Amino acid sequence: MNGKVLLVDDEQHITRNLEKAIPWSMLGLEIIGTAKNGVEALELLQANPADLVLCDIRMPVMDGLELVRHIREQAIACDVIMLTGYQDFSYTRSAIQYGVKDYILKPIPYDELTGVIARVMSEQRSKRLQLKEEQRKLDKMIDLANEKILYDVLLDYTDITPDNWLMAGQEQWLRDPQYTVIVLDIDAGSEDAKDWREWQKKERKMWNFAVCNVLRETLQLAQLQHAVIQMRDGEWCALIQGNRLEPEKGKAPDAVQMKQWADMLLASVKSNAKLQLHAGIYDKVAAMTELSAAYKAVQRGMQLSTDTVPIAFFGSELAGGFETGRTLWDIAERLIGAMKRGDAFGVDEEQKRIADQLHKAGGGAEGRLKPLLHFLALHLMRELKEADLLPRELEEALWRKMDLHFSVKDLFAAIRQASNEGVARTTDKRKHSERQMADAKQFIDRHLFRDLSVEEAATHVGLSTSHFSLLFKQTYGETLIEYITRQRMETAKSLLLETPKSVVQIAKEVGYAERRYFTKVFIKYTGQNPTEYRMALQGGTGPLAMEEEPDEWR
């Protein structure tokens, strides 16, 4: 695409000569108009902005310097080259103050002017490329940060409100229903999954990572704005942002579109990772504040469903026929929570509730509840594995029972055995967990100012990401991303007060490669941009308060 040039001179023969003498097309430029004074030029620029203005200084009505002043005040994005027959230094100084790119004396040396124009336009193109690259890096950084936040949101580990300082300029997420929620899961009891169960921990971790990458690359190739988050071993949640998907239609994706996306993801995983997954889709788009409930509804529906279809839709309410299953699921969730807390009494109470449900079901339990208990047992085993509460020998014994399809009584005994083992190991591991969290905190503090993932911190102390996240929140009262961000912001506040370092230097020192993202987070955390905060602390005086922050950083 050609750049645009405006010629401004009250002598028409000069503008005609400029039109003919400069090889505009070779320079990648086209002339969009000529003007005899600053007033005409300003009107033309307001109607059709130019990339470059060649302008005489001395003109009637409005001279060139006054024109440049108006251009800067109105923030019209263009470069200016001044043309003049006056060698007065005061003109040159004023031109420099207004950011004029160069100053050419008349009679115009056209070869020299051509070289100046080529240099100015080359600088423009380089600046645009640099800004584009910076924006790409910023977008990537925001995506990574958002993915970490979304993980905590899906697991309901963090409260997201407009006042939450993690929502750095992204408050619209809370209002706009914009996510399609697709949960992809390996069927842990299927024939396809048997080899996967027997893999070593390291192999399974690499495989989980590979599937995650396949899902991300598939959505990226489809040009869908997305986040893919591994929720636990063999389960992923794909979030497809919905407010930009069909802007020309102004509506959210329908069930047909959602199913097409799920089909695409399943086919890609089967082709690239050689594994058959199944998918559950939340039946409507969800706002950020609804994501946790949407994820849980789909996960619950997938676990309780006895259908073998590869893709199914689930809503916030299951069909009436699933009432008993829903009750059992709620009990199982409370059982898992009590088990992870080491609450032996709570585990015993929930086991009694399961037994009571089986008793109420009477003779129909074998046919109706057996599949549900089977799914609940699998769910419990996966949660125990994520929490590192299932020894290998017990896992193998439970898998054998699952494969043999024992009776309801045997399945209930397996659930009781697994949960009792879980609560016992939790009690034994409580002190060990406290040491793990202290070790994790030291590791995080040592690496606070680089991009540190939940996975890296969890691996350092030998835990799964979900169990690590739960323990960290229970121990310190905030999620990992909340802790890291708060520590970075507090350090930045100290550096602004105690050092003469620039905002750019401080942003890099506290772990933000992009100053604009640092400023966004800082404003959300403190209510002021970094420069305003520094000046307020110093009462607007002193050498540190003289630093000014460019508008685009605010």
Give a quick summary of the entry.
The chain is α/β, with parallel strands linked by helices and 554 residues long. It has helices at residues 12-21, 38-47, 64-73, 89-97, 110-154, 194-198, 201-221, 255-272, 291-304, 323-341, 344-361, 365-386, 392-404, 408-446, 454-460, 465-476, 480-498, 503-509, 515-526, 530-537; strands spanning 3-8, 29-35, 52-56, 79-84, 102-105, 179-185, 226-232, 235-241, 278-282, 311-314.
Fold and architecture overview:
The chain is α/β, with parallel strands linked by helices and 554 residues long. The protein has helices at 12-21, 38-47, 64-73, 89-97, 110-154, 194-198, 201-221, 255-272, 291-304, 323-341, 344-361, 365-386, 392-404, 408-446, 454-460, 465-476, 480-498, 503-509, 515-526, 530-537, and strands at residues 3-8, 29-35, 52-56, 79-84, 102-105, 179-185, 226-232, 235-241, 278-282, 311-314. The protein folds into four domains: 3-128, Response regulator (Rossmann fold); 171-317, Reverse transcriptase/Diguanylate cyclase domain (Alpha-Beta Plaits), CATH 3.30.70.270; 323-429; 482-553, Homeodomain-like (Arc Repressor Mutant, subunit A, Orthogonal Bundle), CATH 1.10.10.60. Helix 10 packs parallel to helix 12 (365-386). The longest helix is centred in the N-terminal third of the chain and has 45 residues, at 110-154. 34% of the residues are buried. InterPro entries: CheY-like_superfamily, Homeodomain-like_sf, HTH_AraC, Sig_transdc_resp-reg_receiver, Tscrpt_reg_AraC-type_HTH. It comes from Paenibacillus taihuensis.
